[in-house]
Each structure stands twice: as C-alpha cells, then as structure tokens.
Write a structure and sequence with these properties.
By secondary structure, this protein is of the alpha/beta class. The protein is 21% helix and 27% strand. A 7-stranded mixed beta sheet has the order 6-5-4-3-2-1-14. Strands 7-8-9-10-11-12-13 form a 7-stranded mixed beta sheet. Helix 6 runs parallel beside helix 7. The chain starts with a strand and ends with a helix.
C-alpha cells in the first residue's frame, strides 16, 4: 500500500498544502485500486496532479468539518458537468449519516435529490468494516465536537510474486483528542497518520478537540505502531515544537506529512492475515488538570 499526501494542513488550507486529503493505492493482482481518506478544502485541485479523478474507487470521510469534506462539492461539479460525460458508476462515498444532506445544503441543492445522482452515499457503522478491492476500512468513533467523527483503520492485502500475500495497515486519526478508541484503531499499525494540531501549554484549556504532538506520541506508543506520521498541523502551530513533543513520548520513527510526498506502508506479514496486535491499555485519557501539570 502506498500513501500520497494530497493535503495535510490543519483546519484550513495553508500556503504549502490544501486541507486534509490522503490518497491510498494498492494492487489486488489484477489492477491498482485508489481510494481517498477525506477530501478537504482545496484538495481536489492538487489531487489531479497524482491521479485522474475517474480512476478513484471511493472516498472515505472521517467527519463533516469543511477541512475534511468540502471538496466533495467540487467533485460533484466535476462529475455532473463534464462535457464528455462521467462515463462510469456513481462515486462511492462512505461517511457520517448526514453526509449527503450536508453536501446538498453546502451547494444550495434540495435534499432530494441533492447529489445522489453523482454519489453513492453510504453511512458508517462504528467498528463495522467496509471492503473495497484489496482495502478493508474500519471506522472507530473518536472525540471531536461534531455529531460523528471517526478514526479509520485501513488494511490492504496485496499478492506477492512468490504466491503469498502482504498485509499493510495504516491508521488515520481523523480529528480527535485522546481516547481509547483512537488507540484501538491504531493497534500494531505499520503507519499511524495522526493529527497534531495543538501545542502543549498553549491549548491546554481546550478539551475534546485535537491532539498535541505529545498526545499523538502517547497514542502511538500505547498502540505499538511502527511509524508515526504527524499531520493536520495548522499554520499557527510550530512543526518543530510538535515533533519535539512527539519524540518525548514515542521512540519510534517520526515524520511530518508533506503535500506531494508518497510513503510506502508495508508489513513483515506475508500471509495476508491481520497482524498480531498488542493489548491496548485500559485508558489513555487523563483529566485536563493532569495534562497541564
């Protein structure tokens, strides 16, 4: 499985990157499959540098804040008004239950039919996996101030030349504060794509919204992930501070997501079966006053 960072700036597009959008590719032995995790503000334009949007097999939305979903409106235009015609099935979109209505409202459309002619909208059920091609995506509810917000665990099984198979695991935090479900989603992942929008000391009074580098590192350590890739860092948050916080809490490989960079997500498992997972701690959530001390 490969991960290409389309957008990684937190909360709104920055000068060097759109908001959240991540392209995953994997091969099932017959063809390459392409899915998106989120399609935030400004991402659709940059996405077209890396793939034809007609080659996408599905879009998987973590939650309905604009920096994670609003370019679905642009995708609707691309599908609906292509002079040569879309020429394929409706675009598959998995997301919170309100996704179809929220997008119709954002574009000023009546809820019926809204964008249903262009998108095949389907709703997450917590912890119920979805399979598409070589991908298996499982949503885990997390802590963020909106009706539904999910971390997504993506497992990809790809055949090897020797007749075996390789399972790769990417965990994506979406937007969240510390919670046990975040750790559950990331257990034993080969790569943990984790938001770190806040800074220790600056944002301590804000509960249930975002992680700091320290809290991202704590989650990575608790989940025993192989690598931590920090993302969703807004323009007013210092990247070096976030990385230093994460390194203090997690001693594995750490990098910062950069728009346009492709990462390999791989595993040592050659059997095509889920990895053996460590046991999650009972809880990583600590009272706010303890975090500030």
């Amino acid at each position: 499985m490969k991960l290409t960072i389309i957008g990684c700036t937190g909360s709104f597009p920055g000068p060097g990157s759109p908001a959240s959008c991540y392209l995953l590719t994997a091969h099932d032995g017959d063809r390459t499959w392409r899915i998106l995790l989120d399609l935030g503000s400004g991402a659709l334009g940059v996405l077209q540098r890396y793939t034809d949007i007609k080659d996408l097999d599905g879009i998987f939305i973590s939650h309905l804040h604009p920096d994670h979903c609003m370019d679905l409106c642009g995708m609707h235009v691309a599908i609906r008004w292509d002079p040569e015609g879309w020429g394929r099935d409706r675009m598959l979109v998995w997301g919170p239950a309100a996704t179809a209505d929220r997008m119709a409202t954002a574009y000023g459309l009546p809820l019926d039919p809204g964008m249903h002619a262009d998108f095949d909208f389907r709703s997450w059920v917590p912890r119920e996996p979805v399979t598409i091609g070589p991908f298996r995506i499982t949503p885990f509810p997390v802590r963020h101030p909106i009706e539904e917000s999910y971390a997504l665990r993506v497992e990809a099984v790809e055949p090897l030349a020797d007749g075996g198979a390789r399972t790769s695991v990417l965990a994506y935090s979406g937007d969240t504060d510390s919670c046990d479900e975040l750790i559950e989603s990331a257990l034993g992942a080969d790569m943990f794509l984790c938001e770190a929008a806040f800074q220790e000391g600056r944002d301590d009074a804000i509960e249930g919204v975002h992680l700091t580098g320290k809290r991202a590192g704590e989650a990575a350590r608790a989940a025993a992930v192989d690598r931590l890739l920090l993302t969703h860092v807004p323009v007013w948050t210092d990247i070096n501070t976030v990385v230093s916080e994460a390194k203090a809490a997690y001693d594995g490989g750490i990098a910062v997501a950069v728009s346009g960079v492709t990462y390999g997500v791989w595993s040592g498992d050659q059997l095509g079966t889920p990895k053996s997972l460590p046991t999650a701690p009972v809880s990583l959530i600590r009272p706010a006053q303890e975090r500030r001390s």
